[in-house]
Design goal:
The protein has 402 residues and is of the alpha+beta class. It has eleven helices and 20 strands. The chain is globular.
Length: 402
């Protein structure tokens, strides 16, 4: 009998990877699970750098994985936070139309929300100020199930619960080689550790396509990193809760919005610009090999050709604080440049197909003895509990195949 170090090896210690380990220990107690995370602790990238919003699911196409998992995941996340004493608040949010051209899209969101089973209430201009006295708009919708929480704390609790059930979580272990065999996989890390497993689960986020290729699978996509740039309000009292613009359905980004977190701080953003490295949280962070790989992917050029006007606007707001301020003033006219102070940025791991399509839904691919999570941006944190169960079920099915 071949000796295995574990039955399921999860690559990635963000919220999706940790939720998968957590789900495995509950669905199949006694299953030997190992998690490899290259950072010294959990949730150091997308999970720990987002705005902390528990999304309702109002934006997502009915029947999509995003819609199903976000609606279910939002309710489960609130219960999880309550169970473990994690900071969480269900505040609701406003989606505000500031231009007549946005009104049809706002009405379409009402219909979509109702199709997804989400309570949505339409508001006139006067009713907006009842919720947010400083916000102005022509019309809005109020989504009652949106909230905020501390996703770093959620990830830490998932890790602790998984470890308590026997999961081995190893930090500082970056995957360097994946040796695919008929019996499973042997993984070697940059630290020299070798782990043999029956099934590989790839939850590597910003590096998921690279891990898939190391495993000998063609993911059919590439991660193109987009940096989300934020400011904080020096006068957080200007905003009571969450305020969003009407999104453009042609893009997977929600536009510059205002988010009061569980700590009482109000984040403004994000502005979405191409990052010059997978973990390029500043313009000064450039990794030539990663940038070259992004530029070599045909889909990157097709995005640029198709959406250059949108991209130019995002770049302008990145390089010009007055331009960013003008975008915020559409929702919050009273704000001044002095009200904005820079905050930490995040990077979105956006899957892009060869033809330039920005993958909109969660994307999970399976191959013999491997499950690859290839697109899990927002609302993945919100939906992490049901996503983890889905991935765990696929991994257990692969184990059962022998």
């Amino acid at each position: 009998m071949r000796a295995y170090d574990c039955e399921v090896l999860v690559v990635g210690g963000g919220i999706v990877g940790l939720s998968t380990a957590y789900a495995l220990t509950r669905a199949a107690p006694g299953t030997k699970v190992t998690v490899l995370e290259k950072e010294p602790g959990p949730a150091r990238h997308q999970t720990g750098r987002n705005s902390g919003v528990i999304h309702s699911g109002v934006y997502y196409r009915p029947g999509s994985l995003k819609a199903r998992f976000a609606v279910r995941g939002a309710a489960e996340m609130v219960k999880f936070c309550a169970e473990y004493g994690i900071d969480c608040a269900v505040t609701g949010k406003l989606i505000v139309a500031t231009d007549r051209e946005e009104l049809p899209r706002l009405h379409a969101l009402v219909q979509r929300g109702r199709e997804n089973g989400i309570p949505v209430r339409e508001l006139g201009a006067a009713q907006i100020t009842e919720h947010e006295p400083q916000v102005r708009g022509l019309a809005a919708i109020h989504v009652g199930t949106t909230g905020v929480c501390d996703f770093r704390a959620v990830a830490a609790q998932l890790a602790a619960s998984a470890e308590a059930s026997g999961t081995d979580i190893r930090y500082g272990e970056e995957v360097a080689v994946v040796d695919r065999r008929a019996w499973g996989v042997a993984v070697r890390t940059t630290a020299g550790t070798v782990i043999r497993a029956r099934v590989l689960v790839n939850c590597a986020g910003l590096h998921c396509d690279r891990v898939a290729r190391l495993a000998g699978d063609d993911p059919g996509m590439r991660i193109v990193p987009f940096r989300g740039e934020y400011y904080e309000l020096t006068r957080p009292a200007l905003v009571r809760g969450l305020v969003y613009p009407v999104p453009d359905p042609a893009f997977p980004f929600l536009g510059v919005h205002l988010t009061r977190g569980v700590d009482g701080e109000v984040h403004v953003g994000p502005n979405a610009v191409p990052a010059l490295a997978r973990e390029g949280y500043r313009w000064s962070t450039v990794r030539p090999a990663e940038l070259a790989a992004t530029l070599a992917w045909p889909g990157s050029w097709r995005i640029a050709q198709r959406h250059w006007r949108y991209g130019a606007g995002e770049l302008h707001r990145s390089l010009s604080k007055p331009a960013f301020l003008a975008a915020v003033r559409r929702l919050l006219p009273e704000i001044t440049e002095a009200d904005l102070r820079p905050a930490a940025a995040g990077v979105r791991a956006q899957a892009v197909l060869r033809d330039g399509t920005l993958v909109d839904d969660f994307l999970i691919h399976e191959s013999p003895r491997a499950v690859h999570v290839l697109n899990a941006p927002s609302p993945a944190a919100t939906a992490s509990l049901p996503i983890g169960r889905e991935i765990a079920a696929r991994a257990l099915a692969a184990l059962a195949e022998g």
